[in-house]
Design a protein that fits this description.
The chain is of the alpha/beta class. The protein has 7 helices and 6 strands. The protein has a 6-stranded parallel β-sheet, covered by helices on one side.
Length: 208
Amino acid sequence: MNKRSAVSNASRNSLRVLLDLDQVLADFEGYFLELFRQKYPEHPFIPLEKRKGFHLTEQYKHLHPDAVEKTREIYHAEGFFYNLPEIPGACSAAKEMAAMDGVDVFICTSPMLTNEHCFVEKIRWVNDHLGPEWRGRTIITRDKTIANGHILIDDNLKILGACARPTWDHVVFRACHNRDAKLRGRSVLENWTDGSWRDLIEDYLKRI
């Protein structure tokens, strides 16, 4: 069975869209940098326009001997995930998408296992920004490849797991750390504010 056939069989009645949370709906990078500069004003930092690579620590470890420890202090703190600001237009787009005929929308996010508050705070964030009905639409998993959907919108360029051929197509959401990445024909969503996500969804609706 080819990938498109597998995707089409994932849901017979509707288009199933999986939305990542961090850096797709919630601004992890911007909030981290804001807190980092507040807590360590004399410490070197990486401006968003110079961020490269998915993992913060891979860049910050080159700045200072204790930079990795300092970055972890920020995103391991209680309240970090709950207080992430919304990516502009993200939640209104998610709600509008979920209201479209023939479209089911779910949050599909990975937990930070080293932050004991992460699981609960992600659910609280979804509840407060999207509504209590979205709690039942939230999938928290370390392995997104086993999630069943047609589309996964995610800023991570490399999503690996137990399933070598996930049912979903990966639509890359542009973020500071992947803005210069060579995507070689992969689908890209630049933002939530220009309305291009509607064209993406309409195109996939025609395929299933």
